[in-house]
Write a structure and sequence with these properties.
mainly alpha, Serine Threonine Protein Phosphatase 5, Tetratricopeptide repeat, 0% strand, elongated, RNA binding, PPR_At4g14850-like_plant
Length: 232
C-alpha cells in the first residue's frame, strides 16, 4: 500500500489489527506510535482489543489507561478482557468506574458483567445487574443474557430456581437454554430433572438426539457417585 502511494487511515489500521496476530500487531503498534494515529481513539480501541484477545491483559490495561478520549467501546473491551481471563473483580471495578464517568452501558457490556458475576460466584450481584439492565438502563434482554443468568444459577447450585427462571422466559422454547440446564444436571447429579429436561428437548428438537447422550452421562455420573458413597 505504501509503495503504491496510498497512506493508511484509521479504518485501515483497525481492520488490520482485527485480524492479525499479536506479534504482527505489536509491529503495527510501533508504526502507529510514530504516526498521527497514536492518539486516535478508534485505532487505540483496535489495539486494545488486539492485546485483550491475545491475553496480554496488562499491556491492554496500560493502553487503556493512556486513552485520553475513551468511548463505550474502550470500557467494554477492557471489561470483557478482564471477564474472559478470570479477573472478575477487576471487570466489575472497571464497570463501576465507567458508570461513575457517565458512560451508559449497552447490551454487550452487560453480557461481560453477567459472565464475570457467574464465574466469580456473585449470585446476588448478578441478579442486581440483570434486573437493572432492563429497569434502569431500558435495554432489551437477549438470549445471551438469559443464558448468563441460567449459568449463574446452576453454578451456585440453585437448580430449581434455574428451571423456574427458564420456564418463565419468553424464550423458554429455546433448546440452547435447556441444554445449559441439562449439562448442569450432570454436574449436580440430578437424574429426575435431567429426564424432565430431556423430554422437553426431545419435543423442541425431535431430530437431534444429542440430548439423549447428555442424559446418559447424567445417569453414569450419578451411578458412579452412588457407588463411591456405598463403597466409602
Amino acid at each position: 500500500m505504501n509503495l503504491e502511494g496510498f497512506r493508511p487511515n484509521d479504518f485501515t489500521f483497525s481492520s488490520i489489527l482485527g485480524s492479525c496476530s499479536v506479534e504482527q500487531g505489536t509491529v503495527i503498534h510501533q508504526c502507529i506510535a510514530s504516526s498521527v494515529f497514536t492518539s486516535d481513539t478508534t485505532v487505540q480501541n483496535a489495539l486494545l482489543n488486539m492485546y485483550a484477545k491475545a491475553g496480554k491483559i496488562q499491556r491492554a490495561k496500560d493502553l487503556f489507561d493512556g486513552i485520553q478520549k475513551r468511548t463505550l467501546v474502550s470500557w467494554t473491551t477492557m471489561i470483557t478482557a478482564y471477564s474472559q481471563h478470570g479477573r472478575h473483580e477487576e471487570a466489575l471495578e472497571i464497570f463501576k468506574n465507567m458508570i461513575l464517568e457517565g458512560f451508559e452501558p449497552d447490551d454487550i457490556t452487560f453480557i461481560s458483567i453477567l459472565n464475570a458475576c457467574s464465574h466469580a460466584g456473585l449470585l446476588y450481584q448478578g441478579w442486581f445487574y440483570y434486573t437493572c439492565m432492563s429497569e434502569d438502563h431500558k435495554l432489551p434482554v437477549s438470549q445471551e443474557h438469559h443464558a448468563c443468568m441460567i449459568d449463574l444459577l446452576v453454578k451456585a447450585g440453585w437448580m430449581s430456581h434455574a428451571e423456574d427462571f427458564l420456564r418463565r422466559l419468553p424464550s423458554h422454547s429455546d433448546p440452547i437454554l435447556w441444554r445449559i440446564l441439562l449439562n448442569a444436571c450432570s454436574m449436580h447429579g440430578e437424574v429426575a430433572r435431567a429426564a424432565r429436561v430431556t423430554e422437553i428437548m426431545s419435543k423442541l428438537e425431535p431430530n437431534d438426539d444429542s440430548h439423549l447422550v447428555l442424559l446418559s452421562n447424567v445417569y453414569k455420573t450419578s451411578f458412579s457417585q452412588g457407588f463411591r458413597v456405598l463403597g466409602g
